[in-house]
């Protein structure tokens, strides 16, 4: 059974390792660890029993949040974990008075775009050449809700 909870110090190395596995410009472990003490941050982790499965992280200012990263271990993909993480993040943000969540996604990442659209995100813009390795545009997606 998948459980989602707030990231704890013991999760930082696992999150950083998954960053390395999934992203061309991963956050270093030290940067992930700093999110634990950032009052603007909300990072959640997913576990299947004792097995780490993925994470999501955000930062909020006033009533708007930006989703920093979302990653699920390859063996756990297409099992609803990313959706569960984003849903849990939205609920936590609502509790804090946040009214919307924005994210950037590679324009070529069709599976992620399809997931976000299924979760109610809409494209609100494009950032030309946002990603560097490889160079690519980002789509800006946003989801709004009432609190």
Please name the defining characteristics of this protein.
147 residues; alpha+beta; Aminopeptidase
Fourth-tier CATH superfamily name of the domain at 2-102: Gcn5-related N-acetyltransferase (GNAT)
What is the CATH top level name of the domain at 2-102? Answer: Alpha Beta
Report the sheet with the most strands, covering strand number, pairing sense and barrel closure.
7 strands, mixed
* CATH third-level topology of the domain at 2-102: Aminopeptidase
Q: First CA to last CA: what distance?
A: 29 Å
* Whole-angstrom Rg: 14 Å
Estimate percent helicity: 25-40%
Estimated structural class: alpha+beta
Uncertain runs are none
Topology pattern, helix = H, strand = E: EHHEEEHEHEE
Q: Kindly report the spatial arrangement of strands forming the biggest sheet.
A: 1-2-3-4-5-7-6
Number of helices: 4
Q: What would CATH call the architecture of the domain at 2-102?
A: 3-Layer(aba) Sandwich
Per DSSP E runs of 2 or more residues, the count of β-strands stands at: 7
The proportion of residues in beta strands is 35-45%
The average pLDDT value, as a whole number, equals 95
Can you describe this structure?
The chain has 147 residues and is an alpha+beta fold. It has a domain at 2-102: 3-Layer(aba) Sandwich (Aminopeptidase), CATH 3.40.630.30. It is built from 4 helices and 7 strands.
């Amino acid at each position: 059974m998948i459980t989602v909870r707030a990231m704890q110090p013991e999760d930082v190395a696992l999150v950083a390792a998954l960053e390395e596995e999934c992203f061309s410009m991963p956050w270093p472990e030290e940067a992930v660890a700093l999110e634990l003490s950032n009052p603007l941050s909300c990072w959640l982790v997913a576990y299947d029993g004792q097995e780490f499965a993925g994470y999501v992280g955000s930062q909020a200012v006033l009533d708007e949040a930006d989703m920093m990263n979302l990653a699920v271990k390859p063996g756990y993909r297409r099992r609803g974990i990313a959706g569960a993480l984003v849903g849990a993040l939205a609920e936590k943000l609502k509790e804090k008075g946040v009214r919307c969540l924005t994210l950037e996604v590679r324009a070529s990442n069709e599976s992620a775009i399809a997931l976000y659209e299924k979760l109610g995100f809409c494209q609100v813009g494009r950032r030309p050449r946002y990603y560097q390795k490889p160079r690519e545009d980002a789509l800006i997606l946003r989801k709004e809700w009432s609190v």
